[in-house]
Amino acid sequence: MSSTNATLSSMRRLVEQLKLEASVERIKVSQAASELQQYCLQNAGKDALLVGVPTGSNPFREPRSCAVL
Fold first, then answer.
1. Per the similarity annotation, which family is this (predicted)?
2. I need a surface site. Which of 17, 25, 44, 57 has the fewest CB within 10 A?
């Protein structure tokens, strides 16, 4: 009997998940790609991977050591 209840519970969760996925608004891949391209082009000037990080504000730069001559 518990096997039947477990199966029934599993099927209910599956149906709820499928209902949730069916209700998601979808757009065409071409539209999504176009919007992503526009976003990337609009924000390219702010992207540190494209324009680099100013030396003074780079938290990952190697620490400078002071050498006494």
1. Belongs to the G protein gamma family.
2. 25
Residue type, 19: K
| Distance separating alpha carbons of residues 31 and 37, to the nearest angstrom | 10
Distance CA 15, CA 36 (A): 32
Q: Which amino acid is at 4?
A: T
66: DSSP letter: -
Judge contact between 61 and 53, C-beta under 8 A.
no
Give a three-class secondary structure readout of 1-35.
CHHHHHHHHHHHHHHHHHHHHHCCCCCCHHHHHHH
Put simply, whether the predicted model's pTM sits higher than 0.70 gets the answer no
